[in-house]
Design brief:
This protein is an all-beta fold. Helices cover 0% and strands 36% of the residues. A six-stranded antiparallel β-sheet has the order 4-5-1-2-3-6, with no helix packed on it. A hairpin with a 2-residue loop joins β4 and β5. The radius of gyration is 14 Å and the shape is elongated.
């Protein structure tokens, strides 16, 4: 991927999946009504701590809480950085 960022300790950098723009029946969803995505791909992983070894790895698709993490923009793309504890599941 070539990102020049390395999360510290038990933090993970996630690229969220794009929000749905159309419903199953074909109705377009306006930007103001789009749901915040709760699924994404792990882009970078910290080394963990002495008490916490990292479970997720780069490339994993994960589910996380709706309000988990901190949003940031790198090289024109949106990312979330969060603690591994905020990740609910690996898909």
């Amino acid at each position: 991927m070539g990102l020049n960022i390395k999360p510290l300790s038990d933090r993970v950098l996630i690229e969220p999946v794009a929000a749905e723009t159309k419903t199953a029946s074909g109705i377009f969803i306006p930007d103001t009504a789009k749901e915040k995505p709760q699924k994404g791909t792990v882009v970078a992983v910290g080394n963990g701590t002495k008490d916490h070894t990292m479970t997720v790895k780069i490339g994993d698709t994960v589910l996380y809480g709706k309000y988990a993490g901190t949003e940031l923009k790198l090289e024109g793309k949106d990312y979330l950085i969060m603690r591994e504890d905020d990740i609910l599941a690996i898909i």
